[in-house]
Design brief:
Layout: E1 14-19, E2 85-87, E3 101-104, E4 110-114, E5 124-132, E6 139-149, E7 152-160, E8 170-178, E9 182-188, E10 193-200, E11 221-227, E12 231-236, E13 239-245, E14 251-263, E15 265-279
Antiparallel strand pairs: 1-10, 2-15, 3-6, 4-5, 5-15, 6-14, 7-11, 7-15, 8-9, 8-14, 9-10, 11-12, 12-13
Length: about 280
Amino acid sequence: MSVLVVAVASVTACSFLTDLDRLSGGDASTTSDAAGTGETGADATTAPDGSSDAVAPTDAGGDAKDAGILDRSVACAAQPISFLFCADFDSVAQPQDGWSYIDINPDSGTWGLDTVNFRTGPAAGVVSIPGGGSGSEHAQLGYSNPGPLSAVSVAFDLRLDVSTLGTLATNAMGQVFIGNNHSATLLVGPGATASLDCYNGGVESESPVAAIDVPPTRTWFRARITLDSTKANLFFDGKLVATVAMQAATGSVDAIVGGVYTSGPGSTMRAQFDNVLVSSP
């Protein structure tokens, strides 16, 4: 098993801030995950048979394709769409099974399986990472492909398992790379904010993003990060919430989820991940 340590100091070229005040609602908006269903997230839809596994294009201009949604009624290996890698954490003994690597700072992060809070059962991956401020705290699951490819996307169901975002450090929850100099990263924090942070081969770019509706903490929603030869995009539940122009790049690709890194002092981030899908759109 190869291990990739991601350098985080340089991933600061562009940043998009998004209002996540709705995420700070805490337990008042908690879904009924105690039963292990976790099916009341923002992208849950009802199938003709009354189940919640079928998915459809999301509301508010969203699109199933842009949510990176897969068919949750079947296992990863049977997905009806083209993909590079898929992890649903349902038939593994350890969360890292099937991934290219796991990279954990032994003093500051953990990965496990959660059989209570999942988007689709019987399990989800769960990560915990403290906000220590040193920048070395991380607990990553990563997929690598030698390519060469000029586009990569990672989509995942995400549940921020904290009562409030108000005391969080900056937490990188998902990241994609093309080669070594082009990347896009979903950041949550500090506090009730989110951003798309990009490294564009040394070229900086920044643009404001309008406020969007996002689910409360402890509610499932779907995030997707895309990176290609012209732009990086961030989608929440199929709705485009951030974009930045990028230079063309071709090479190996990496997709990373979990506690990619944390920066600054703050409280512990705990989050569940499910139905991770890596593709080259």
